[in-house]
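Question thread 4412

I'm putting together a teaching handout and wanted feedback from people who do this every day. The idea is simple: show students a protein as raw sequence, then show them the structure tokens that encode its fold, then repeat with a second protein so they can compare. Below is the first pair exactly as I plan to print it.
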Amino acid sequence: MQKIIFFIMLLPLMSVAQQFKSSPIENGVRIDFNSRIMAEDRIIWIKVPASYNEQKGTAQSYPVMYVLDGKTAFFPITGVVSFMSEKDHVNYQIPEMIIVGVDTEKRFRDLTPNASTKQPNGDEAKTPEQKLMMKESGGGEKFLKFLQEEVFTYVEKNYRTNPYRLYVGHSLGGLTSTYTFLKHPDIFNAVISIDPSLWWDGAKYVNEAPELLKKMPTDKMRKYYVSVIDSSNYGGSLQFHTNAIFNIGKAMENASLKNIQYKVDYIPNTDHSSIPMLSWYNGLLFIFDGYHKSHYDYMNDPDLIESHFKDIESKIGLKMNPPQDIFEILVHYLTSPDRYPDPVKARKVLKMALKYYPESSYFQNKLKELDTKS
């Protein structure tokens, strides 16, 4: 009898429990593979934009962001990019992107361009621990080859990529991204270098920057963003670190190249561990400065859509068609009775949209509706 009473008492709780269903959510895929170049197993993480799989039959392609230290940086940076670019947030500050996180477990090997035994302050390594840490340094060129021949090849074969590549690195990752910008400027269009370890080997690449910048190709716009911590939090003990970063900015300023836009972003109240989040946001705003235009501007003058995206190519270096999401929100506003209905402008936007996305059933049906009403 007691068992029956206990079961009856549980029934309401069981009923409530059955109302809640859990289901997995996806924030990208993890790719494990054996690298021929590195001769070891490697991991990359890939997330496509929200619109990537929603728009069937689309020809839309996307810029690609390559993020170092993928294991730790991939998940938070995907949230930042999503907030800044996707239609669910009604926020188009930057373009939607494919994000590729590249794991870099052996950072002193993969993220240092040359071998060095110098400590951050310029002194030679003395203790066994210091010497052991620096022993495997200098694998940066091999790592770049791995990126180009294996990671790029995989991503560009399997995803709808735009030729625009962005490189993001923190600390030693910022060192190698800056090195790549200076020594291999054709690999990436833009770099976000977060509190980089430019002290490396006695600030070797800061010292070489003036000559390297003279050799910079002038074929397209390149953008370089570098952030730097508030060294006052360390009582001045990191002056060698921050000086190197400010000096790379001076080299950019003195070079005065029309096809290079750069920003040195001093971020107060940060330390080396906390600075990435603000740097991702600030860096993306800088790299894609001029990308955003209000959809109200487009509604007032639909011709701005195409002219604006032509301007983006010269201002940012990003060559892309107007995204499908932008057309969709404009069509929604211009055809909804409770918004800003304007059949003339709506028809113009729809015909423009179908020029870029002719397979879109949404645009086809909306145009048929307008033709039926007219």
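The second pair follows. I'd like the answer to focus on this one:
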Amino acid sequence: MWAMIVKEFRQLRRDRRTLAMMIVLPVILLVVFGYAASFDVKTVPTVAAGPQGAALAQSLGEPFDVVATAPDEGKAWAQTQLRDNNHGAAVAVIAGDGPTEVLIDGSQLFTARTTLAALSAKAAKAAAQGAAAAPRQRPTVTVLYNPGLKTSNIMIPGLCGVVLVFIGTIITALGVVRERQSGTLEQLAVMPLRPRDVFLGKIVPYFGVAALDLAIVVGVGVGIFGVPFRGSYAVFALAAVLFLFVTLGLGVLISSVSENQGQAIQLSMMVILPQVLLSGLIFPLTSIAVGVRWISYILPLTYFNEISRGVMLRAEPIGPLWQPFVFLALLGLVVFTLATLRFRSFLAPAAPRRGKGRAPAGPPPAGAEAGAQAAAGPAVSPAGQARHPDAGGGP
């Protein structure tokens, strides 16, 4: 029994990927749930419109933080600020000649709930102090884009990205590693195919399956759960294509450093888990500690969540979304380049192009001429008589 224990410890020590998974993953979970797993929103970015808008927003106090003011603008400007998520605005205060209004972005679920709770608490405090305003002077509170504050309206746009991450990362990694384990990857290497042809041939089917699953998720979310789709399908599709390029590249990159499917699954989980927990899908980004929040900005799912929720819920056009699009494109370029180079490294050199497949010039290797003569058979003299290789050189 002791020999078996020692043998297992030695085998575990040699399997560095599994050992790292057993040690690093609990640390990641501890850090994430200790610092990032928080639904509390401490700051609510607020924009103010109208002559008295800024003063009214400042009078609200915490957790409201005025990030932009426009004394000459009105409700239309405030709605545009919330729709385009300018300055991260989640609340807009309009105070001018007309009635005072407070607009809340319902697509930011936890921020919206924090805002409603804060407004209710301030109204109750004012009423208890006997300084409550007249009913006609109380601001009208309106929740936009998700009036019922339904969780499904927030989760399903994010789940679209999770589906793409799952297929693009895990399934692609397993598919490529399966080729290596079965030995067919070496067969692909000797075929007249360039590495990029094999690379694209491997990921295009997964691209199609992921696109089909994405359409199913969106269709079910809109048709069954009643999630609105107010924006452009073209903008949403462009974001999905860019995001898929990143996830497929990650899958191929993982497969290139994995020896078997078990290692591929372990590495894929280490890539997927931070994206689910730190991308704003479950916990709001503003509630994540600064020391951990920087990880969120290098995760592709963070930018896809921003685009999908903006397009589906707020009908946000492509103009204000240029930043997440640019970051997705850059991440896709980096990951795809690394995956292509890594994939090329364990394939044979590409088939020679036309004009480049001729034998190299220079003297043949030693023994090559003798071997060729031996393969051709005994030499024939000019007189038509065969000469034995051991025969003398007589007349």
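Top answer:
Good format. For the second protein you could add a caption like this: Confidence is low (pLDDT under 50) at residues 132-136, 348-363, 365-395. The first strand starts at residue 44 and ends at 49.
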